[in-house]
Amino acid sequence: MKMEGVLKLYFGESNIPTPEYIKRAALKALNDGYTFYTENAGLPGLRQDLASYYLRIQGVELDPQSEIVVTGSGVQALNVAIRCVLNPGDEALVLTPSWPNHAANVRMDNATPVDIPLLLRGDRYAIDFDALEAAMTPRTRLLLYTSPSNPLGWAATDEEQERLLGFARRHDLWLLADEVYDRLYYRGLRLGDPAPSILRKADRDDAVIVAQSFSKTYCMTGWRVGWLIGRRDMAEKATELNEFIISHAPSFIQRAAQTALGEGEAELGKMLVRLKENRDFCLAALRRMPGVTVPSPDGAFYLFPRIEGLRDSFAFCRKLLEESRVGLAPGAAFGAGGEGSVRICYAAERKILEQAMERIERFLEKSWMANAQT
Ligand SMILES: Cc1ncc(COP(=O)(O)O)c(C=O)c1O
């Protein structure tokens, strides 16, 4: 962290500051007196706005009273949801490579995460349904996946969503979808269309939970506000548990979140144009490099190139950092299936990305030449 001149592409957040209209809304909320406690499930107005937002963006009808819980971030949404559905000794299937906090949250409940790696077929990742079946035990309670994915950029296809839901129904599992990157999606008819939520396919009575956040869509990582959607019994339990964890997200921040939902589309549209340009630039640059395969990314702001012959991604990232001053995240950090790859966050300035791609290319060429000579 102290090293000078490092091009930092290991972060999981955008370089864009929170837009002014959201900051103004927070200041106004403070001046309007939003300095007291709110309901544990969140301000009724914010829950209502979330319900309207889902109808508008995903075409999904939700009951704001009983199916939506505002949380103090996406992490907290995951934490409380997982606590609601796992008992000590239970097992949770986690589609990996995935953000390490998923497995960590399972372990925090004295339960066991079981990694099920996605398989790279051609230039797309795909869910290994045979491995899911084979991993089932009498203790399995939960199946957790992320779409669009951190670190892969992969998003579940329509058919994969159907099959995940069918699998969860058949085995009586909770299905927890981390959809915090749903608005950072490039495969819709129009840029700005969301990655379709699993909620489009689920019935009200399905054991389905969606963890969500304002962090990525609205550049609000430091604000700590998110939400959960789930079946009534889970939402009720999460609301009860929240009393003892965080009680509720800060009141004035919930008001600012309402403004983000209502007025955020224009800024989001601009950000998506920039992200897509960055993505295309990095994708083309990486695909020209020797020994590098980059799976096609559907969403989020990450690329997960696989590097031929790479056996220790931590050592690779350390060497790249020391010799070339480029900071990437080692694939091994993301669970089974991650080794052999590195994660690049392209939500950065174009200048930085250009320099980083050049340095990575030179680094790889040098290592390839060294390998060829030995
Ligand atoms: C897949 C995924 N889920 C959830 C989160 C949590 O976001 P936050 O706690 O900032 O809302 C992150 C953040 O990096 C993430 O990558």
Describe the structure.
The chain is of the alpha/beta class and 374 residues long. The protein is built from eleven helices and 16 strands. The chain has a seven-stranded mixed β-sheet with strand order 2-10-9-8-7-3-4, sandwiched between helices. A three-stranded antiparallel β-sheet has the order 12-16-15. It has a two-stranded parallel ribbon with strand order 1-14. α4 (101-108) links the parallel β3 (91-96) and β4. α1 (20-31) packs across α8 (251-263). The longest helix is centred in the last third of the chain and has 24 residues, at 350-373. The protein is globular and about 60 Å long. The two termini are 33 Å apart. The model has no long low-confidence stretch (mean pLDDT 96). Pyridoxal-5'-phosphate binds at residues 12, 73-75, 99, 146, 150, 178, 180, 213, 215, 221, 226.
